[in-house]
Structures are given as C-alpha cells and as structure tokens.
C-alpha cells in the first residue's frame, strides 16, 4: 500500500484550491464541505516511488512536507498554523485548526477488514482507494472508501492508533543541515561523553605554553606565583554544542552502522593509543578497510572515481581525511562544504535501518540542494532512486518526497515525478500546477525564477536540434521507451545529455561554434538535422569548420534523418522523411492532431473527417509524373484539416503537436487509442533514432576524454623533460608514472594508458637500483611521446 495523495486546507499558505473552486463544472469531493460551503482541499498527488516538489521561494514547498507529516501522524500543527489570510481566520468557532487528509491506493484484503473493525463501514468490496481525514467538525477523524469509482460518506475512526496496523507509512527525514564533522573524539564513540575534542590547536597551545614557561613549574612556589597564568592555559574542556553532538552522532553511525565496526574494537583503540601505537594503527587500518568496502564511492560519487574517505588517528580523536584522484591527502577543513554535506546525506542513507515494527516509511527532505554542486545533486538523485527501488534485497522500498528549487535535482527521465507549486494573489494561497512536464517543463521557468530550458553551456554533452518540437519529441520518446523496457544504451539519459533547440536550422553551425570553437574545454556535441535543403546546407557549414577553417565537430557526430545510420527509419509519407514528425505513424499523427484541436480548436474534430494517409499525402509521382515537394507530415495534415474544416487559416502548432504525439504513445491521453501495430512502428523508429544519438554521444564523450588524457600527459611530459633534458634516475620515472596515473580517470582509454606505463617497470628496470639513471633514456622519451597519443590511436582504431 502506497500513499497516493495528500490533502491540506487552511494550513499556512495551503489555503484551498481556488482554481478548482472557481471552475464552472466544480463537483465537490465528499470532504470539501465546511459550515460555510464547499472549499476544495489543495491536493498533492504523490508517485509510488519519488515525488519532486519544486517552486519559487515562498511558494509553499516546505509546507507540503509538514502537511504530509501532519496528515500521517496527527501531530506537528496547532491553531497558529491556520492560514492567516483565510476568510475564516479568527472569526469562525468551528474552523480553528488546519485540516489534512491522505489517500491510499493498492488496498489489501487485510487492510479492508481492518477498516471495518475501526469504523462503521461494513461489507466492503472492490475497494479502490481509502482516505483518512483530520477535520474540525465531528467526526474529527474520519475514513472514506471508494468503490466502483464512488466515495462513501465519512465514518468515524474509533481508534486512530489502529492506523499502525493499517500500514500507514511513518515519515522520517534526512537532516540536510548536519555535515560530517572534521573529527570525532574517540571517547564519544566509546562512552557517549559529550566533551568537545581537544584538537591539534589546543594541544599545541598547551605544549608551547609549557615549553616556553618551563620555569613556572620548577617548584610549588613558582606554581603558586604563576597560578593565574597556568589556570588560564589549562582552561576546562568545554562541553560540545548541540550542533557538534549531532555531527558526532553522524560520525558514530558511519563507524558503527555503515562500516559495521564493533564498539569493543574502538574501546581497544582508546585503551592502546597511549602505549601501543602499532596496535592502535592496525585497528585504524581495519576501520578504513571496512569503510572502503561499505561506502563504495566510485558507484555514488561521479565527480571523482578515485575518491576515498578514511580516518586517521590523532591522539584522542579520529580525524576524517580524503584522498582524491591527485593521490594527495586532505583534511575536511580543506574541502568544500558541499562534499561534507553530500557525505552526510550518504551516511544517513546507508545508516538508515528498517523499523522494528515493520511499518513502511516515507522519506521527506527539504531543499537538499543548498550545499551541493550540480554534479553532487545528480549523485544525490541516485541515492533517492535506491531508497525508492533498492538494489539490496534486504532493504524495503521507501517512498521519497523532496522539495527543491534547483533544476539539477530534477530527473528529466521521470517527468511525471514533478509537482510545481506557485503562489496565488491575495488570499488565494499556494496552488499545484498541473501538467508540469507539458511543453518540456514550461511551468518550471517561473518556479525557478529563471529560464530553465536547456542551453548549450549547461550540459556535459549536448544534442543540437533544429527546434523545440524536436526537443519535446526526443525527450518524450526517451521517457516512453524507458517505461516499455528499452535498454539504457538504446535510448537517452536526459540527465546526461542536454537537448538544445537552435531556433532554426541556420543557427545550428553558430551554436556549435559557440560551444566548441572558442574555449580550451570543449563540451561534446552531437547534431541532428532534418532531411531537407536547409539540413544539407547546415551539414556543409559544419564540415567547413569555424571562422578559421578549424574543424568544430567530426562528421560522424552529425546525424541527418533518413541518411547514414538513420536510413532505416520508416514513414507512411510516400515522399519520404523530411522532419522528425515523419517517423510518427500516420494514425498516431492524426490522433495527436485531434488532441490538439480539442484543446485549441474545439470546433474541429479531425477524426470525423475520415482522413487517411492515401488522401492526406500527395501521390509520389505527381500529376505531371514529377514528385511534388515534400513538406512533411505536419504540413500535409494541417492542409487536409484546413480543407475539410473550411478554416483556411487553420494552424497545427509543432510544439503542441509534439506534446500530443507523446501523450498518444504513452497512453497519457486515455481517449487516444493507438493500435499495437502503430505503437510498435513508432517504437522501432524512435529506438533507431535514440540508439544512433546515444552511440554518437558515447563517441563524442570518448573523444573529449581522449583529448583530456593527451593534454594531461603532455603537460606532465613537458615538466619532466624540462628538468631531465639528458638523463633521469629510475625513481624519477617511477614518480612520473605515479603523477600521470593520479590524473587519469577510470575510462577505458585511461586504463590503457596505465597498462602501458606498467610495462615500463620491466622495460627500463625501474624497480632495480632506483637511484641509478635510466640506461635507455632516448627510448624513455620515445615511449613518453607515444604515451600521450596512445588513447588517440586506440580511439581512431575503433
């Protein structure tokens, strides 16, 4: 059983659903009634897995989380939380508290029987939904049941505590304000003693004070004489603050719950740190070994595949340290706050334990983006995904609801997760914007306070397309193919490729130049062009290069519909494929046009015109034996509808058509019935298109990785040859190998470079007499020169 929807009314900015209330055909839900008429609740529909709530500042995002907690638990709200601008605030004796409700789906037979025992319901069958509401009027805690698409009247819940048996999820939070500490006292780990750590600075201060003022301690008399200064130097150890204790608790969870270290081992560490340093350090080695296995950072932290978190022993504290791809070690105080907070979220995730009573849970998290970089936020999405769909068989799935105002915490592959909030005017309060993903996240623009549609300079890899309709169709098709089980490699991960609409074919070469032609770091770019004269010209312009004839993009990264890798696309258009709309089966296009007309031109019903491909498309031979000009499916369909409707100015908008096409294929629009044959044809076309784009994406990213590898090797080589112009010691070459290796990532190209350098140990006898010079210095330089371009040669051979 999953939480399906949460309702709130008169709660802070969640006043009531003023849009729904003002609708001409508003039909109240059974719980909408008040002593002063019907006021619909603000409803937030939740996904079974993850729900993302976004909105501008003060739009009510955080209040949604509080409303979920209040609705599930019945605590955490009071009279002062009643909406201040509600017409009932302070003037109605029967409406003094906010009101909340929750609706559940997938109700088991056992849960139905329980409802009958805790309420006046009896003989329930075919139960579709169950709703619990906390109201001002009697019955104050009530239950509704939906059967055959109809809700029953309210029944009093006699024993609210029985909800635990019903399986109502328990909300919990990951604390977004507590970072992992720089260090943790060993005494706290062993005994929970909340004294602050001594710290290196304090210990150094004590030693320097004793060393510089040794004469103070020569006799009882000198001690008495300098008692004031000595007392000041040996100030009492302070108690840790509440914030520090929270950080220590997080560190303890990391050591004991995540790494699985036995507390007795840490107690031994405390006992032996003063006298058996070797034994104590062996215990620390064990802790670090278990930490490395439990954390598995290469899987979670994409910014550095060689990242390591470990602890070091410093007198009475365990100090958290970091080793990154440079091979160097850093203290926590030397790294960004974002890393500390990501580690905090990660540790809280790994340390989370299943409830002993077996009740399901729901994770609520408020703005986890505030300390994280864009990459860190993308990594956090993977943690949320594992909460909702754990890969570990020992973990139960947990619903996740988080609020954010960051575009980087939106999973573009899961558009239906998004719930957009906006603040109405005056007493209207917060409302939930429907169809958040329509027109490729159009409502998110105002929610984030800035234009959120893709730009060339946001994405790690960019797909240039001619217009926004291409963007909508490609993104929508990718999400659709994911749902029907198409392999990851045969579609796009929309979080790792940015679809950039150029605003017309003629703008594509310039956009590619902006992205690739001016800076040292060149983001990978793939181009998709229409199969027309404008597409041909753009392809020629891209081949010609930039302002100085420099190649901006390899020709195999420029895709053109119905050509090259895409010549297997099929179409109902007898004239062939011009634009992306032509790969949509005709009947699907007709349904999309019908959906468009229902929304924008309700007087026109294309399905009633008896349109067919044979009548909409012109004859491929033409009346004069010559093929007519191919304007594409959209224009031909638009003309046919204009002729049949008698509206010569009828226009079929490309973006709206693209949206309607995605709705038809995904089944979002239930009144649009797509045949299995047409759905299969569309799937095969889009699979070929997305597979080709994904292959180009991998090729482009590999090429940029190769260039970066070569650049790093060349810089290291230049520095080495500057200081070793005619000879070098073997240990210097070993250090060079270590330096180059530390700068490489985990890509296959980098591993090839590492493998090549490993052969140098035997080839140049680096492990024998390290202080001796390399015998074949010219051979070393030749090998070093070849190393920089090994990845380039390997990539070219693929």
Write up what this structure looks like.
Helices cover 41% and strands 14% of the residues. The longest helix is centred in the last third of the chain and has 48 residues. About 3% of the residues have low confidence. Strand 7 and strand 8 form a beta hairpin. The relative contact order is 0.07. It has 27 helices and 23 strands. With 798 residues, it is α/β, with parallel strands linked by helices. The chain is flat and about 110 Å long. Strands 1, 4, 6, 7, 8, 9 and 10 form a seven-stranded antiparallel β-sheet that branches. InterPro entries: ATPase_AAA_core, Bact_Antivir_Def_Nuclease, P-loop_NTPase, TOPRIM_OLD. It holds the Pfam family AAA_21. This is ATPase AAA-type core domain-containing protein.
Key structural traits:
798 residues; 7-stranded antiparallel beta sheet; 6-stranded mixed beta sheet; 27 helices; flat; ATPase AAA-type core domain-containing protein
Number of strands: 23
Strand content: 5-15%
Distance between the termini: 50 Å
Q: What integer value in Å does the Rg equal?
A: 33 Å
> Main β-sheet: number of strands, strand sense, barrel status?
7 strands, antiparallel
Uncertain regions: pLDDT < 50 for 5+ in a row?
437-443, 445-458
What coarse outline follows from CA principal-axis ratios? Answer: flat
Overall pLDDT, averaged?
Answer: 86
Class derived from helix and strand content: alpha/beta
Number of discrete helical segments:
27
What percent of the residues sit in helical stretches (DSSP H or I)?
40-55%
Pfam families: AAA_21, OLD-like_TOPRIM
Domain ATPase AAA-type core: 308-411
Protein name: ATPase AAA-type core domain-containing protein
Organism: Kribbella koreensis
């Amino acid at each position: 059983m999953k939480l399906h929807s949460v309702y709130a009314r008169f709660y802070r900015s969640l006043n009531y659903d003023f849009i729904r209330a003002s609708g001409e055909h508003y039909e109240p839900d059974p719980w909408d009634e008040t002593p002063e008429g019907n006021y619909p609740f603000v409803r937030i529909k939740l996904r079974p897995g993850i729900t993302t709530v976004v909105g501008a500042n003060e739009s009510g995002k955080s209040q949604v989380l509080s409303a979920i907690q209040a609705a599930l638990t019945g605590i955490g709200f009071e009279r002062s939380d009643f909406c201040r601008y509600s017409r009932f605030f302070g003037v109605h004796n029967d409406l003094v508290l906010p009101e909340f409700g929750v609706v559940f789906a997938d109700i088991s037979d056992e849960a139905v029987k329980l409802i009958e025992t805790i309420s006046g319901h009896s003989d329930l069958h075919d139960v579709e939904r169950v709703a619990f509401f906390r109201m001002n009027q009697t019955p104050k805690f009530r239950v509704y049941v939906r059967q055959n698409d109809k809700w029953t009247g309210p029944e009093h819940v006699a024993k609210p505590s029985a909800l635990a048996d019903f399986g109502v999820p328990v909300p919990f939070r990951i604390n977004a304000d507590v970072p992992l500490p720089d260090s943790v006292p060993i005494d706290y780990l062993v005994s929970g003693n909340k004294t602050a750590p001594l710290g290196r600075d304090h210990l150094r201060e004590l030693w320097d004070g004793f060393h510089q003022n040794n004469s103070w301690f020569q006799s009882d008399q000198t001690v008495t004489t300098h008692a004031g200064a000595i007392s000041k130097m040996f100030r009492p150890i302070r108690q840790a603050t509440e914030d520090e204790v929270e950080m220590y608790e997080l560190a303890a969870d990391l050591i004991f719950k995540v790494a699985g270290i036995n507390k007795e081992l840490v107690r031994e560490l405390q006992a032996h740190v003063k006298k058996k340093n070797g034994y104590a350090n062996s215990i620390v080695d064990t802790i670090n070994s278990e930490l490395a296995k439990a954390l598995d950072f290469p899987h979670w932290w994409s910014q550095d595949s060689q990242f390591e978190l470990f602890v070091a022993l410093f007198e009475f504290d365990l100090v958290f340290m970091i080793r990154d791809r440079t091979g160097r070690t850093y203290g926590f105080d030397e790294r960004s706050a974002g890393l500390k907070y990501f580690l905090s979220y990660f540790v809280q995730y790994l340390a989370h334990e299943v409830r002993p009573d077996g009740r399901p849970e729901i994770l609520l998290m408020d703005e986890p983006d505030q300390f994280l970089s864009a990459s860190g936020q993308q990594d956090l999405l993977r943690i949320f995904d594992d909460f909702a769909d754990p890969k570990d068989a020992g973990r139960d799935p947990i619903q996740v609801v988080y609020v954010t105002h960051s575009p980087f915490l939106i999973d573009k592959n899961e558009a239906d997760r998004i719930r957009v909030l906006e603040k109405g005017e005056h007493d209207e309060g917060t409302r939930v914007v429907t169809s958040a993903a329509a027109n490729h996240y159009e409502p998110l623009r105002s929610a984030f306070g800035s234009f959120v549609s893709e730009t060339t300079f946001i994405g790690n890899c960019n797909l240039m397309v001619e217009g926004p309709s291409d963007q909508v169709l490609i993104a929508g098709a990718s999400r659709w193919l994911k749902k029907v089980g198409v392999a990851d490699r045969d579609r796009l991960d929309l979080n790792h490729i940015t679809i950039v609409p150029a605003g017309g074919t003629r703008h594509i070469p310039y956009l590619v130049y902006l992205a690739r032609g001016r800076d040292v770091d060149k983001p990978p770019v793939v181009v998709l062009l229409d199969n027309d004269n404008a597409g041909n010209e753009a392809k020629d312009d891209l081949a010609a290069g930039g302002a100085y004839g420099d190649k901006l993009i390899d020709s195999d990264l420029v895709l053109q519909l119905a050509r090259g890798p895409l010549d297997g696309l099929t179409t109902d258009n007898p004239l062939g494929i011009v634009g992306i709309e032509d790969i949509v089966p005709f009947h699907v296009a007709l349904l999309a046009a019908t959906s468009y007309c229902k929304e924008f031109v309700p007087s026109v019903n294309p399905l009633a015109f008896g349109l067919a491909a044979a009548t909409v498309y012109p004859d491929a031979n033409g009346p004069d034996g010559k093929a007519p000009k191919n304007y594409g499916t959209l224009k031909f369909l638009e003309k046919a509808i204009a002729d049949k409707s008698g509206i010569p100015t009828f226009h079929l908008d490309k973006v709206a058509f693209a949206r309607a096409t995605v709705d038809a294929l995904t089944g979002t629009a239930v009144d649009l019935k797509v045949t299995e044959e047409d759905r299969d044809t569309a799937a095969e076309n889009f699979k070929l298109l997305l597979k080709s784009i994904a292959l180009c994406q991998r090729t482009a990213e590999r090429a940029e990785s190769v260039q970066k590898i070569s650049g790093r090797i060349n810089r290291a080589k230049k520095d080495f040859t500057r200081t070793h112009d005619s000879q070098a010691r073997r240990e210097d070459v070993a250090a060079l190998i270590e330096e180059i290796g530390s700068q490489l990532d985990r890509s296959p190209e980098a591993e090839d470079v590492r493998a090549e350098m490993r052969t140098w140990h035997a080839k140049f006898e680096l492990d024998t007499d390290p202080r001796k010079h390399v015998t074949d210095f010219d051979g070393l330089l030749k090998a070093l020169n070849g190393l920089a371009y090994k990845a380039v040669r390997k990539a070219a051979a693929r």
